[in-house]
Design brief:
alpha/beta, Rossmann fold, 5 strands, 38% helix, 19% strand
């Protein structure tokens, strides 16, 4: 069974390690990035099943990154799942073109269920 590839963009090392371990344990191939620039480089090199990303990033606001990806022909349709500790009802966040927006702290089951909706693993039924 081939794993779905998830690009995980998170600038806090503890969160990156925790989310990556959770997704890998579930069967995903995880590629890590800690800046928007790193994520763009990784995304352009492979065909990712989805991007799971923080919004508060050191080099670019995650909302802006999402908008840029939506205008990139090859990446425009890729599912983007945002995870943030910021208040979700901020207009610039709630209007961003994410497929899903999760509020931190995210429960492991919630993250896995959300990722599975947008990037199901081959041979695994999605509830």
């Amino acid at each position: 069974m081939d794993a779905a590839t998830i690009v995980l963009l998170e600038d806090h090392r503890d969160s990156l390690d925790m989310y990556a371990a959770l997704l890998r344990d579930a069967g995903y191939d995880v590629r890590e990035a800690s800046t928007a620039a790193d994520a763009i480089t990784v995304l352009r090199k492979l065909r990712a099943s989805a991007l799971v990303m923080d919004i508060g990033l050191p080099d670019m606001n995650g909302v802006e990154l999402c908008r840029r990806l939506r205008h990139d022909g090859r990446l425009a349709a890729m599912p983007i799942i945002a995870v943030t500790g910021w208040t979700i009802d901020r207009p610039h966040i709630s209007e961003a073109p994410f497929n899903e927006l999760l509020q931190k702290p995210v429960l492991p089951d919630e993250l896995l269920a959300t990722v599975a909706r947008w990037a199901p693993l081959p041979g695994v039924a999605v509830a």
